[in-house]
Amino acid sequence: MTWLRAFGEVVRSGLTIEETRLEPLLALRAAAGVAIVVGPALWLVSPAYAASAALGAYSAGGATFQRSWRPRKVVALGTGAGLALSTFVGYLAAGRLVTFLPLLAVWAFAAGMAWAVGSTAGIVAATTVGSMLVTITLPTSTGRALEHAGVIALGGVTQAVLILLFPIRRWGAHRDALADALAAVADYARRLRHDPTAPFDPEPLMTARDAAAVTPSQARTRPPVLHGPRGLAERIRPVVAALADPDVGAPAEGPGRDRARELLDAAADVLDAAARSIRRGTPAQVRPESMDVLRVDEEHEVLEGPARQAAERLVELLGEVLEIARSGCARETTPAPPGPAGAPFLVRPTMLRLVPVVVRAVRRETRRDSPVFRHAVRLAAVATLGYLIAARLPLGHGYWAPLASVMVMRPDFHRTYARAVARLAGTLAGVALATGVVRALGPDAHVSGALAVVSAGLSYTLNRTGYAYSQCFTVAYVVFLLGMGGQAWEQTVPERVVLTLLGGALAMLAYVVFPAWETPRLPGRLADWLAANGRYAAAVLRDYAEPTPEHHADMRRALLESRQARAAWQEAYDRARREPVRPRGLTSREAREAQEAIKGLGRAAMLMESHVPRADSRFVPEAERFAEALETDTAKAAAAVREHRNPDWGRVEEALHAWEDTAAGNGSPAVRREAQLQRRALEDLATAVSRTPLERDVDSAREEQRVRATLAAEGDGSGPAHRDG
């Protein structure tokens, strides 16, 4: 992608309105937290204290809108504490540049490395850098700095208390995550009615698993309905796929296919009912027609063989789902404490035990080629450089330039540039809005404080519709706060616009100077995914060959690793497609074809998982040998993909031929057919990535010519208008 086209994508993405459900009650509660702190501080003390209080309450309230499976009050308290600490430490070093700039650089670097833990930690850490830049201008002594830090922390405490006193949808995010997982499987079942090989994105299941991890204290209060249905969704997914697949399930045409479609539609209906029940916390009703379909008639059932086994297994699993759909809650269970013998829930470390987890995560990312490490370096450099440049300009509030940079920068190119564009657009709209209100009303300090609270509430409300639209009211909130302190809009508005433009430009330039492109890393991501899918397929085969609890646990671990590798590939692939960088190692066509081939390998393993027998079944040595060959060849092929060599599947071919030639083929014919599907997927992968260096150069040149032709067509109006997919 060229720079011109990439920047066009950036502008469209930055100004796109995201269709998401608004949460006005949460916004009202967070805005009330700002008002509770700002009002008394303004009335009893001074506008400076009110500004400090507003910073803590506003930032803590905003942090509660970030995705986190920990209680919102914990997030609010942690944000308030981090803001208070950064304010006080910043003031101690603020006397001279020789002390403050190194502290700012170290603090910004640490905030950038916080992305190793997750996006929420990275965003909250960035706000502490902003707090250090802003509030060091307020206190006049160490004692006053402590007071300001305390007031900022009080803002976080206030938000936490409001969350405790006025809970809104307790466990709401966890309910939504589980309901989304069930709804995703329901949608998958419906799509399988018309496309028996339809793809499935496991992201909802991965999110539900993240949400299912709780601390021991959370486990004691978690609703029972959140304890079991995720496992049902995991088990239903391969069963509906096996039922729909014409190679190993229902026939492609005839009464068997019609019966499979009926079962898939009934399964989708039951899963949707369970999703509604969990999301709303109320009982749900299932259509009587679906209940009739789920009754298997032993004498008149048209499905046979593996298809009938899949149908019976599906009906059994849906029967468990029906208990949830009818009652609105799962069976009551008493959670046992976590232990090595196997915990009934996924354990999330407490805040104290999170420290070594964070240290390990940061240590893994402390390498030169890590996107997180490079982001931390950029953040530290831009924060200090922006502070120095703005301090030399004949403008007040110079901290706005580095603050804008810090708040828009992300570890990847597209989001950094999109947020820079969105912040500038939001700033222009916000200052225009606030200026119009100030000129029309001429508000005093108390009215300005009230307008700031209203703007904060609107910013919270639009938090998830797009950064530009939320930023519009954030800017208005800042202008009203400064007006509350007695500063005229004629001074603050032009400064804000110029310094925001400077900060955004520095953030963009930093990514050009020290980038972290995903395009060169695509072969490695693809290799990781291939190796993980190979281990998953081999684990399924071993569990089929000898069903034991140990093999089943290995299969589950391999599945989770495969999903993580797939998510890492998908994220890298999506980022690479938006980068203004030529393909390296993999052309766009090779990446697409290889992606589909590896998806096929994973799908074949998933189909095989639905035929894993129960414990104590007879040993199938042919499946064990095929598992060894598959794991070995995929591991070698992963190394070949990294080194741009062509993969070889010799051992897989030999093991599969031996299985097919053994005494009428021991084991299930459906499983052998699924093994053949795995071999076909590997052949497709070899076709996708097997290119000579000359062929790769020719493909790259053709892609570049195609992109230029498309841009030329769009430029003269003869081509189709671009629309985001």
From TrEMBL:
It is a multi-pass membrane protein. GO terms for cellular component: plasma membrane. It comes from the Bacteria. InterPro entries: Memb_transporter_dom. It holds the Pfam family FUSC_2. Residues 693-707 have a biased composition (Basic and acidic residues). Residues 693-725 are annotated as: Disordered. The keyword Membrane applies. Residues 386-509 form the Integral membrane bound transporter domain. It is found in: Cell membrane. The chain crosses the membrane at residues 26-45, 74-94, 100-117, 148-168, 376-400, 420-438, 468-485, 497-517. Keywords: Cell membrane, Membrane, Transmembrane, Transmembrane helix. PANTHER family: MULTIDRUG RESISTANCE PROTEIN MDTO, P-HYDROXYBENZOIC ACID EFFLUX PUMP SUBUNIT-RELATED. Belongs to the YccS/YhfK family. This is Integral membrane bound transporter domain-containing protein. It comes from Streptomyces collinus (strain DSM 40733 / Tue 365).
